[in-house]
Design goal:
The structure holds three protein chains of three kinds. By secondary structure, chain B is mainly alpha-helical. Helix content of chain B is 65%, strand content 3%. In chain B, strand 2 and strand 3 form a beta hairpin. The chains are: A alpha+beta, B mainly alpha, C mainly alpha. At the A-B interface, helix 1 of A face helix 2, helix 5 and helix 11 of B.
Chain lengths: 150, 370, 451
């Protein structure tokens, strides 16, 4: 092939200028297109009320489904101690249950167990059970969850 | 492989063993001789619609990711694209503006081809393919605008299909084809969508392929050359090394010269389209309400001449007139050829063109102002 | 056109292209997305309540109001307030739920304890505790319970009684009187000002909210406010008041005008907000004789500090003194003499012990309860017309031209004791000199510090 060779410095400069502007320009435009195609980066979080404290007996757990699109397991460990965990086992996605006798979370699919800090204490789950920040304001229990559903 | 060739890079050899094409073919493509008149920007008007079409395909596909073609969801999906999706407003506005510019570019190209007589023998068939491209472009515009499903979309589409339905003989069938039934119904929008993203692009590409093919095998018509030269394909000689050459007094190289021109045009177009998108973003009117016709429905500007014409005369005359004009447009090269067979030096074509163009523009402006 | 030149053009357009692309990015960054207000989060129970109520079309406005409320944003749903336990006095079994029919301040206390404590300690909570008072007798006896239920008690509060199912009985309900006696023993209701189910702060901060009750011939606070400069400024600059701001501090959040809440309750840069509406009130203008309340210096100081947010010290001090002087005038010139006359009439048996059965009792009642209060309230809140024409003018007119003649008719000579005060000397007939001396005396006396 007989490509037209640059015929001097000005020509080379022109080629360079084009390359240096068109390529980044195209790259930026490509980034916009990607942002367009895959719009949501992070899901914002929101704080909502879960329940009144009196609805959570000490030493027991309660399920809360559909909290802004999240399914939670909430356990009240003490007078003022409430923890909220994701119900979804980190192994293969089964739903975790509260084991009242043992005082921890059991996943029935492959007998994975998490303690009340979410740490894996038995079975195949690779990572701890995710927890969500809980805030007590007098009688009300608030939890901060990703707003998966508006 | 010819002798005395420098050693090619390994990757080129890798490919050539697996994709056995004759390298000379590429040379021939890249060395296409372009007559010197093409150095003027005025002659880029053919490539312009193609570049704009490329923009439309890319932005169109991107829009299809979010557009929902059902009457219940269409408007909301367009709204979502315009307001919520990042850069959605840009993609949509570019699509809107490139559409408008494409109609303009196709019109200008047609005018250029007409007034330079480049449709004459042996290039008559290419003109007809070109008219096909024009009609497909207008079809794109018509179906595309209906997809937004705001009031203007809905009613313009309704009126448009009804007008099409008035075509003699085949009108009712055409209207049914467009609507998917005797009346506008829930499938009508989806049908328009399929026309816009499926049937018409395919048709367009077929026409485009034919158009470029015919253009290439005839070669670009040399404007300044005598008629016989114009009528014969380009001569390209071979030099001693067997390389194909052409008379540099008459021609210049497709690559890199013309490609550079087209690159400049392409960059210019995309910049213009982007800036138009920024300064005049695409508008979204009130959502379609089949129960309520807005007081003033107007079609898009490129249909103004037809719209005005149909308002001037009774409907039957309007349709017949349009049909006659359409047929004349399609077969113009043959009509003009027959005329010039009798009067060889007649420039009546110019007169016809000037008058027609003036009329079309006048009606467009009249409708725009009223 | 040479290839070189064309390449230059291309370079130019390339620069334009990248500039255009960058501009697009900047626009996207600055684009205002349609403000997505945090939508209501309804938990399972709330979804059930709303779903059924919507479907059966029962009080659907509750649902819509709740959905727009701040409570809904935080996921505080129906059962947060309406959950009843077994044994609750207002328990009602409804569609399988245990519903509390009368949420009281105790229910709000769960999250709003500070406000609960302040409110319960305040005079507002005691509004229904006027059993045995003249007003109570007037409403219940002289008029009739049916009148009082829709009249007095709607502002002051009823006693809510329930049937065996837990549903409130008529008479005491509907009622959002601010001193309402609830089945669970708590006093008052937050919904008197924070109307359900929006429970909107902005609405509670509106002067009209107070004006529902603080109006009328016997305590026209809202009318006085609207007459005053404060009220005029409020109306003129309403859009700058930012009533819906979370933190609403005069001088910081808004400066356009004070509202009722501004002076009597709301936060200032130096004082916290309080639901104890008496915290900044040093006089009681309610009774026959106005008295200083307990800890009046602290309360006067608290109110003064609010005034000082907008006004200079001289302005405030002078006004407070003039206000005190006006109250003193009322007390000494009209209230005391009139009361003395009534005491004598009662002692002489000219007026029976039964209230409101003698015409003069009505005259006397209105003298202190209506125009007497209007005069004092007008003076307290910068309402000149109420101070004068609806106030002291009518006090004077009724005192001289109605009350005293009526008393004279019953017990000739009794009005002498009423006219002992210097302020009544003019009645004896005065020369211009005497009048001048009288006025000078008044200026000296009531233009000075009272204490």
């Amino acid at each position: 092939m007989d490509w037209s060779k640059p015929t001097g410095r000005r020509d080379l400069l022109a080629n360079l200028a084009v390359a240096l502007t068109v390529i980044p320009g195209v790259a930026i435009a490509a980034r916009y297109v990607l942002a367009y195609l895959v719009p949501k980066g992070r899901v914002p979080t929101r704080e909502v009320m879960l329940a009144r404290l009196e609805a959570l007996p000490v030493g027991h757990s309660r399920e809360f489904r559909g909290v802004l699109g999240n399914d939670l397991l909430v356990v009240r460990l003490g007078e003022g101690e409430v923890r909220a965990f994701s119900m979804i086992c980190t192994h293969l996605g089964c739903r975790v249950q509260w084991d009242q006798q043992e005082g921890n979370f059991l996943c029935p699919c492959h007998m994975g167990r998490f303690d009340t800090t979410g740490t894996v204490i038995a079975g195949p789950p690779p990572t701890p059970l995710p927890s969500y920040p809980v805030r007590l304001e007098r009688d009300a229990v608030y939890v901060t969850v990703p707003a998966k559903e508006v | 492989m010819a002798v005395a060739k420098p050693q090619l890079p390994a990757w080129v050899r890798f490919l050539r063993e697996r994709v056995p094409v004759n390298i000379e073919v590429f040379e021939e493509l890249s060395k296409e001789p372009i007559p010197h008149h093409m150095k003027s920007w005025w002659y880029c008007l053919g490539g312009t619609p193609m570049l704009l079409f490329a923009i439309q395909v890319v932005t169109g596909i991107l829009l299809t990711f979010y557009y929902r073609p059902s009457p219940e969801e269409a408007y909301a999906s367009v709204k979502m694209i315009s307001e919520e999706v990042p850069f959605g407003w840009w993609i949509r506005s570019m699509h809107h503006w490139a559409a408008n510019l494409m109609v303009v570019a196709v019109g200008l190209h047609m005018i250029r081809v007409f007034f330079t007589g480049a449709y004459r023998k042996p290039r008559e068939l290419n003109w007809m393919v070109g008219v096909g491209l024009l009609l497909t472009t207008l079809g794109f515009a018509f179906t595309g605008y209906a997809l937004v499903y705001d009031q203007l979309s809905y009613w313009a589409a309704t009126v448009g299909t009804n007008i099409a339905g008035q075509t003699p003989l085949i009108g009712a069938w055409v209207a049914d084809l467009l609507r998917g039934g005797a009346d506008v119904n829930p499938t009508t929008l989806t049908r328009f969508f399929v026309f816009h993203v499926g049937a018409m692009p395919t048709l367009f590409l077929i026409f485009l392929g034919l158009h470029i093919f015919l253009l290439r095998i005839h070669g670009v018509m040399e404007l300044d050359a005598p008629a016989e030269v114009q009528a014969t394909p380009l001569t390209v000689e071979e030099d001693r090394e067997g390389k194909r050459r052409f008379d540099p007094n008459r021609f210049f190289a497709f690559f890199p010269d013309h490609v550079t021109t087209e690159l400049a045009v392409g960059l210019f177009l995309i910049t213009v389209v982007t800036m138009l998108a920024v300064v005049f973003p695409a508008h979204l009117g009130p959502p379609a309400n089949p129960e309520e016709t807005p007081l003033h429905i107007k079609p898009e500007w490129y249909f103004f001449p037809l719209f005005r014409w149909l308002k001037l005369v009774p409907l039957w005359l309007g349709m017949v007139g349009t049909l006659v004009a359409g047929v004349a447009l399609v077969f113009w090269p043959f009509l003009e050829g027959a005329w010039r067979a009798r009067r060889p030096r007649s420039e009546a074509a110019l007169a016809v063109g000037a008058v027609s163009l003036t009329l079309v523009l006048a009606m467009m402006i009249w409708e725009a102002l009223s | 056109m040479s290839l070189e030149f064309k390449k230059f053009i291309v370079a130019l357009f390339a620069v334009a292209f990248i500039a255009a692309v960058v501009i697009v990015g900047l626009i996207e960054r600055d684009r205002a997305r349609p403000e997505k207000a945090a939508r209501a989060y309804a938990d399972e129970a709330t979804k059930a309540c709303i779903g059924c109520h919507d479907q059966k079309h029962v009080a659907v406005v509750w649902n819509r109001q709740w959905e727009q409320s701040r409570h809904a944003e935080k996921g505080i749903g129906c059962m947060a307030c309406h959950q009843a336990q077994e044994g609750d006095p207002d328990l009602w079994r409804h569609e399988g739920y245990l519903v509390a029919t009368v949420p009281s301040p105790k229910d709000c206390q769960g999250c709003h304890d500070k406000e609960f404590q302040e409110f319960t300690a305040s005079h507002h909570a005691k509004a229904a505790q006027f059993i045995g008072s003249l007003d109570n007798i007037l409403g219940e006896v002289v008029e009739g319970t049916q009148a009082a239920n829709l009249g007095c008690k709607q502002c002051h509060g009823s006693v809510v009684k329930l049937d065996e199912k837990g549903l409130p009985l008529p008479g005491g309900w509907p009622n959002t009187g601010i001193g309402r006696v609830n089945p669970d023993g708590s006093l008052g209701t937050c919904t008197a000002c924070h109307t359900r189910h929006n429970f909107s702060k902005a609405q509670a901060r509106e002067p009209r909210t107070c004006g529902r009750c603080h109006m009328g011939p016997d305590h026209p606070q809202i009318e006085i406010y609207e007459e005053s400069k404060h009220g005029i400024m409020f109306v003129a600059h309403r859009d700058k008041m930012r009533l819906d701001a979370d933190e609403w501090v005069v001088g910081k959040t808004y400066t356009a005008a004070p509202t009722c809440a501004t002076c009597h309750m709301a936060a200032t840069p130096t004082q916290k907000s309080t639901h104890d509406v008496g915290a900044r009130i040093s006089w009681t203008l309610r009774p026959l004789f106005s008295k200083r309340l307990d800890n009046w210096e602290v309360k006067r100081e608290a109110m003064t500090k609010v005034c000082l947010e907008c006004h200079g010290a001289n302005w405030v001090t002078n006004y407070m003194q003039m206000f005190d002087n006006a109250v003193e005038l009322y007390n000494t010139k009209f209230a005391a003499p009139a009361n003395e006359v009534m005491e004598r009439l009662k002692a002489a048996g000219k007026v029976t012990p039964t209230p409101f059965d003698d015409a003069i009792e009505w005259t006397f009642y209105e003298l202190w309860h209506h125009e007497g209060r209007r005069a004092r309230h007008g003076a307290s809140m910068m309402g000149p017309d109420f101070t004068q024409w609806h106030g002291f003018y009518e006090v004077a007119k009724h005192f001289y031209a109605k009350f005293l003649p009526e008393a004279e008719k019953l017990l000739p000579g009794v009005s002498e004791v009423a006219l002992a005060h210097e302020g009544h000397q003019w009645k004896k007939g005065m020369s211009p000199d005497d009048l001048r001396r009288m006025i000078a005396f008044y200026e000296e006396r009531y233009g000075q510090r009272v204490q």
